[in-house]
């Protein structure tokens, strides 16, 4: 059939291929099988779930063709940004590239924090680096927690006082 109004025909065609069970929706499992990093690894479950939740207007745990089309545009934008920061064109983001990316995005983060992210999200190797899926995940979570912090940091001083429960509430509502 033809693409619905407002849906790119290529996105519609890909939607039909990804919708393995022909339900008219894409699940986390179906999305994971459709998305690849530059090293041919599939996107991780956490990133797929974050993205599905972002475009799932009905809170059903899956997206329709319109959500999928918007998700593809979203991934395309992140991929362009990723390639811009992947200065050596290796297909992954190294420690120094990650530091530069954060700086250019306006985050003033220590090398120790970038190292912590690499230890948490990079594939184990002698030269750890971040694939596209993890880059999207890190940036989405960083943006979300920064937004939550800014809501509390009304004077924009870079510090806030939070109760433990306020902190947990910020984390649960933004990250899970």
From TrEMBL:
What PROSITE patterns does the record tag this protein with?
Answer: EF_HAND_1 (PS00018), EF_HAND_2 (PS50222)
Where does the UniProt annotation locate this protein?
Cytoplasmic vesicle, COPII-coated vesicle membrane; Endoplasmic reticulum
User: What GO CC terms are in its UniProt record?
Assistant: endoplasmic reticulum; ER to Golgi transport vesicle membrane
Membrane topology (UniProt): Peripheral membrane protein
What's one GO MF term for it? calcium-dependent protein binding
Superkingdom of origin organism? Eukaryota
Ranges for domain EF-hand: 6-41, 73-108
* Alphabetical UniProt keywords: Calcium, Cytoplasm, Cytoplasmic vesicle, Endoplasmic reticulum, Membrane, Metal-binding, Repeat
The UniProt entry, under Pfam families, shows: EF-hand_6, EF-hand_7
Q: Which InterPro entries match?
A: EF-hand-dom_pair (IPR011992), EF_Hand_1_Ca_BS (IPR018247), EF_hand_dom (IPR002048), Peflin/Sorcin_CaBP (IPR051426)
The GO annotation for biological process reads:
COPII vesicle coating
Q: Note the PANTHER family from the entry.
A: PEFLIN
> What's the protein here called?
Peflin
- Lineage of the organism: Eukaryota, Metazoa, Chordata, Craniata, Vertebrata
């Amino acid at each position: 059939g033809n693409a619905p109004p407002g849906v790119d025909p290529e996105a519609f065609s890909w939607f039909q291929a990804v919708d393995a069970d022909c339900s008219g929706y894409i699940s986390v499992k179906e999305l994971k099988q459709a998305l690849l990093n530059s090293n041919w690894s599939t996107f991780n479950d956490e990133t797929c779930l974050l993205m599905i939740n972002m475009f799932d207007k009905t809170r059903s745990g899956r997206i329709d063709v319109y959500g999928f089309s918007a998700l593809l545009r979203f991934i395309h934008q992140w991929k362009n940004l990723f390639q811009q920061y992947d200065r050596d064109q290796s297909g992954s983001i190294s420690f120094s590239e990650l530091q530069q990316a954060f700086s250019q995005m306006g985050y003033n983060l220590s090398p120790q924090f970038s190292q912590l992210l690499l230890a948490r999200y990079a594939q184990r190797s002698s030269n750890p680096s971040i694939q596209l899926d993890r880059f999207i995940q890190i940036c989405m979570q960083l943006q979300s927690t920064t937004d939550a912090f800014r809501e509390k940091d009304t004077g924009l001083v870079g510090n806030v006082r939070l109760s433990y429960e306020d902190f947990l509430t910020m984390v649960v509502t933004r990250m899970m």
